[in-house]
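Checklist before submission:
- one chain only
- standard amino acids only
- sequence pasted in full

Submission:
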Amino acid sequence: MRAVIVGGGIGGLAAVVALRRVGIEAVVVERAVEIREVGAGLSLWSNAINALRELRLAEQVIAAGSVFERTVTQTPSGRVIATTDLAEISRVAGAPCVCIHRAVLQRILAEALPAGVVCTGARCTSFDDATAILENGERLEADVLIGADGISSVIRERLHGAHSPRYAGYTCWRGVICDDGTLPERSALVTIGAGRQFGVFPCGTGQVYWFLTSNAPPGTRRKPDLTSAAIERTPEDAIIQNDIFDRPALRWWGRGCVTLLGDAAHATTPNLGQGACMAIEDAVVLAHCLRTIQPVEAALRQYERLRIPRTTAVIRNSWQSGRMFQLDQPALESVRNWFFGTSVAARLGMRMFRDLLLYRVPTL
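Returned file contents:
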């Protein structure tokens, strides 16, 4: 069996590693002329670390990132609203929660592949059955075609039509800096208020990752509108700004021998930190289905049946969380902050984290 994966991001690279782990010949076509090490930090919760174990890469990722066991949410004045203790959930899951630089994770995935598996400078513009059609007219025949080409996926557009992504109402700045020792050990700190979120996570030896969101019209480009030591210590050219978009959940992903994976299938806002986690889970579930189910079409439809309910819930819950976190009306903020501190909110939060983190992918 031969698979062609369109897109060389985290999801595409994880998919080719997973497929080759189960004996499926797989290649990636990536439109960029090189796999560039870009981005900032990302969180890989216990569910993703367990999925990476099936790729035999978990220990490398844990060693290259930083384990965190709690998140502390506070107001801009420093008043703690809530503390989420993840240590027990991680213990039950059998895997820690880790923050790692996106470029480091990308490098670990790429280095797990033999030379020639990732074809760069190859822009896929369409497909015919499971054959990828490149911009230069070349046709890459396969038994399975997987669209892992991100939120602006060509494969998704050909399957579902052209639709603009959904703007969440806020923009985001990100950066990685040297750790100055102010962040509590194995802890992440998130400040919410006045239409902003500001988070700081440990992110590998001697580093911390920060992000700042702010309500703004789409396309707004400006310097971060918050005074912070972390931001001030970040060189201006090292700060990444992106508007936040997602895509509403699909009821079906693919047809025939074609399917979607990662952001191409279920782009989500970053409020639950599950974007990369879901893509890595997708990769393992896809490989398992293709290894155990025949014919290919039946394997892909089973993969989609397994993944759509979970990723749909993540899209919905992340969108709703963002709406709460980005409130910029003082009266509503006060109600939110009060509720976050109640036992009811704590129980609901822990239930959500258990559902996310205790999920186990199939064994490869």
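Reviewer check: The CA atoms of residues 2 and 25 lie 5 Å apart.
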